[in-house]
Amino acid sequence: VQLVESGGGLVQAGGSLRLSCVASGSTFSMLAMGWYRQAPGKQRELVATISSGGGTTTYEDSAKGRFTISRDNAKNAMYLQMNSLKPEDTAVYYCRAWLRSFDSWGQGTQVTVSS
């Protein structure tokens, strides 16, 4: 399974972006997935996760109430709707898919929020 993110860009504080992660392969609906981010000089951190069927989601505290993770298994796609963006949300955002010993990451998409 290969993962390709898109949708990053430059946005002003308070604005919105929608990130997409599209996967190849036929096992997408079996995979748990998540969004992570890495800011310059910082460790990669979890932003949100979603179960294989989409029924269970989790969020890092700073994302709660602002970000929404979702997926469309028919399109092999996962999304992250980001609203009320803040400069501290600036980072490279990565999608990840996993199932037991399988673990795959995308190449990342840059999100820059200007103040």
User: Could you give the distance between the termini?
Assistant: 37 Å
Percentage of residues assigned to helices: under 10%
What is the tally of beta strands? 11
- Along the chain, the helix and strand elements come as EEEEEEEEEEE
**Rg, Å, rounded:** 13 Å
Shape: globular
Which regions are unreliable across 5 or more consecutive residues at pLDDT < 50? Answer: none
Strand content: over 45%
Mean pLDDT: 96
Question: If helices are DSSP runs of H or I spanning 4 or more residues, what is the number of helices?
Answer: 0
What can be said about this structure in brief?
Helices cover 0% and strands 54% of the residues. It contains no helices and 11 strands.
Structure report:
- With 115 residues, the chain is mostly beta strands.
- The chain has no helices and eleven strands.
- β7 (67-72) and β8 form a beta hairpin.
- It is globular and about 40 Å long.
- The mean pLDDT is 96.
What's the SSE blueprint?
Layout: E1 3-6, E2 9-12, E3 17-23, E4 32-38, E5 45-50, E6 57-59, E7 67-72, E8 77-82, E9 91-99, E10 102-105, E11 109-114
